[in-house]
Amino acid sequence: MWTPGQRLFVALLALMLITQVSPAAYAAKAASEYRLSNGLTLIVVPDNRAPVVTHMLYIRAGSADEPPGTSGIAHFLEHLMFKSTEKLANGEFSAIVSRLGGQQNAFTTSDYTAYFQRVSKDHLGKMMEMEADRMVNLRLEPKEVDTERQVIIEERRVRTENVPSSILGEQMSAALYQNHPYRVPVIGWMHEMAKLTREDALTFYKRFYAPNNAIVVVAGDVEPEAVKTLAEATYGKLPPNPAVAARVRPQEPEQRAPRRVELRDARAGNASVRRYYLAPAMTTAQPREAEALYLLMKIAAGGGTSRLYQSLVAKEKIASSAGGWYSGLNLDSGTIGIYAVAAEDVPLDRVEQAIDRVVHELRENGATQAELDRAKKQFLAEFVYESDSQEAMARRYGSALALGLTVEQIDSWPETIAKVTLADLKQAAIKYLDIRSSVTGTLVPVNPDPENLIAAPAPETTVPAAPATAGRPSRVAQ
Amino acid sequence: MWTPGQRLFVALLALMLITQVSPAAYAAKAASEYRLSNGLTLIVVPDNRAPVVTHMLYIRAGSADEPPGTSGIAHFLEHLMFKSTEKLANGEFSAIVSRLGGQQNAFTTSDYTAYFQRVSKDHLGKMMEMEADRMVNLRLEPKEVDTERQVIIEERRVRTENVPSSILGEQMSAALYQNHPYRVPVIGWMHEMAKLTREDALTFYKRFYAPNNAIVVVAGDVEPEAVKTLAEATYGKLPPNPAVAARVRPQEPEQRAPRRVELRDARAGNASVRRYYLAPAMTTAQPREAEALYLLMKIAAGGGTSRLYQSLVAKEKIASSAGGWYSGLNLDSGTIGIYAVAAEDVPLDRVEQAIDRVVHELRENGATQAELDRAKKQFLAEFVYESDSQEAMARRYGSALALGLTVEQIDSWPETIAKVTLADLKQAAIKYLDIRSSVTGTLVPVNPDPENLIAAPAPETTVPAAPATAGRPSRVAQ
């Protein structure tokens, strides 16, 4: 049997496939927003299909807020938040959630850190009590810190060091961002992770973990006012930190020259090529620009009907997979990504040239009305589909608010998407698919012996020469 | 008529051209080192050929010590040091030096900032008095700050924005350093320079400008003890800053993948290619490594007798100029550089392949004894030649001490150079001419319209495809 929410979802999906959807249809589950007197933001999203709640805490602090030289501390602290507090023993937080039959997780991004529990609705108060406790009462015992440092190092080993495509992604981000801390991997550089101290964690904790730097999202079978009362009885008792301020990070200079990163790794599968372009974030884009980029990248590279897939995989058969995306939910800047995996025995150059043709064509002639209409429908379908997931809804509001967006902006997003024109798409393509603000990465399955990394010496030949000079660069300013 | 110093120089030069030189010969002009009670380091280098002195102040603070987001503040402050103090009006410092018939200058690097005057010896006391004054009494009037900001912006415009090879160098440094602040140009990124404030300058000044963070070098016709007395009467009266500490900056992660930067600029001359490799600094290198790198790069690319020049310019005639260097006088890491300018109508690929052949050959087979002997002689000749310049001697000691090297290390450098073996050279070549820790830059004279920057679409063809996957990168750590 379907719940009312599921019925609504299916009804909307059906509607959308036939006709233009009325944007008002998405505001069905209205989110309530509160601000406690200590500055904490509370969002409640009713979802009465089952007697469960999703409780999320967002802290407005991520890896891009780390002091230089302490990369990984935001993520390390996320791990340490499960250690002992004044009230709970090491590991007790997780044990209680499990005992109550709940699920939990946590994650760190460049811009925020989030903690998550899904429990039956009568345990919401307990979750809030425990989450409020560890927001200010973390003990950070030296032994806990030392043990957990080994865990994050192992995590990096498994997720990054052992995955050539992850290494390439890191190297590409480091080349894409010339000045902004987004260049630094969220998990941290290994040599810096190994030196992270209790003091580094404590400094980060005291600076960012405070109710006036937090957003709590509760989605589920709850009444907003009742949740507010619970929040006031738990989070509401915490003192605000007067030192919390808007985050100001170094911004990118004008980007002038395309970059390339060439990773050779014996563990790589088929050769692949990837490109990142610097793009605006939702928060920094001009009106409709971010929305145009979402649609543009759907048309260009989103899934099997996209131009990239159709051209490289279906038609030319030079790639075994291909795709792309725009990611705009960041504080300072977004990214456009495109990738393709070369088919057996196809030179990577050919694959890259094919990507360039797709990009070139979009910059030159834009998209068609049929493509735009289909992309909008796809976008709306995904938005509605996602709205059916309690956790996804909690994440949507939590992450948006952590970045400075408003509930209204999120709720009206389908309307904004609906307004995007072909001219918006073409302008976005010309402005942001600009090779000068891009990095192209290649991953080739070759033994990483340095000798294999140098271009094979070509035979010598002779041509006439003309005199000229080239200056020696210097790091000196008079 | 020759002065005794000139005679010594010529004698040494002659000696050197005939036979192995006794290293002891270079210690002729012994430098005296003092430490004042407030922590200031004083170096006196006697040079009695003429009644003049070179007076230099080194502050252990450069662009790599700038708070993120305030790039250019070290250099901006260097400019502002010529503005008003409690005792001198705006511009009076320079006016007095000129009136006394002196010369002066100042410069900023990644690691230190230096101020320089050359005056007749009876004015040394006055220079010390004025330099000590502005070390602590700078007023930084808002109007002076605003005016001078325009000057540094104009300086960047002239020296960087208008010089494509400078832009390329900046872009390459930003790609070479993935984590270290050496990535940021000394003069600053334009968008950050435009926002530098009086408070930024004041914060940097108060943090770094103090006698216990300073080195004073006096070279010239002086008695060390007399200079010490003068220094105590001027600099000696300044209070130390207890907050001065050793500089700890973010270090580079393991470098894994070669990078490329491709700048197209209508103002470029002939196409050129450049490569930077990450290398150790004098201060971080293993014993004899830095010295081996100096000699290796002399053999590889230093001047008309080098392998690079002989191969690309003299023999193959594919380049109109070519050269290279190792730069190790930095606090945290050094750089190896190689460049070549393509001869008329020679494709840049061919020039780069020729560079790769020279590098490959050195890694594979090392240098010859004859090359090593000649490089040592060249190095010693330059060392001795430089020792003849009062200003160069002052700079040599000042910069070395600003980086944490000792007078003894500098004086014994020729001895260390003499000890370098062919095995040292080969080991340095294998270890540091490693493409994985390099960036290759190309500068091509093409109209910078974005359309010209995208690879020309190649014709489509068809080959069979095989299924595979490629992951989407994410900046999320669970």
Describe the structure.
The structure is a homodimer of 478-residue chains. The termini of chain A are far apart. The longest helix of chain A has 20 residues, at 142-161. Chain A is an alpha+beta fold and 478 residues long. Helices cover 41% and strands 16% of the residues of chain A. In chain A, the strands form 2 sheets. Chain A has a 6-stranded mixed β-sheet, with helices on both faces. Chain A has a 5-stranded mixed β-sheet with strand order 7-11-8-10-9, sandwiched between helices. The first copy, chain A, contains 17 helices and 11 strands. In chain A, strand 9 (319-327) and strand 10 (334-342) form a beta hairpin. The first copy, chain A, is globular.
User: What's the N-to-C terminus distance of chain A?
Assistant: 77 Å
> Care to count the β-strands of chain A?
11
> Can you say what the CATH homologous superfamily of the largest domain in chain A is?
Metalloenzyme, LuxS/M16 peptidase-like
- What's the CATH first level of the largest domain in chain A? Alpha Beta
Major sheet size, sense and barrel closure of chain A: 6 strands, mixed
Judging from the principal axes of the Cα atoms, what is the shape of chain A? Answer: globular
Q: Helix tally of chain A?
A: 17
Radius of gyration of chain A: 25 Å
Low-confidence stretches of chain A: 1-28, 454-476
Please trace the helix and strand order of chain A, writing H or E for each element. Answer: HEEEHHEEHHHHHEHEEHHEEHHHHHHE
- Give the number of domains of chain A: 2
Largest sheet strand order of chain A = 1-2-6-3-5-4
What share of the residues of chain A does DSSP label as strand, in percent?
A: 15-25%
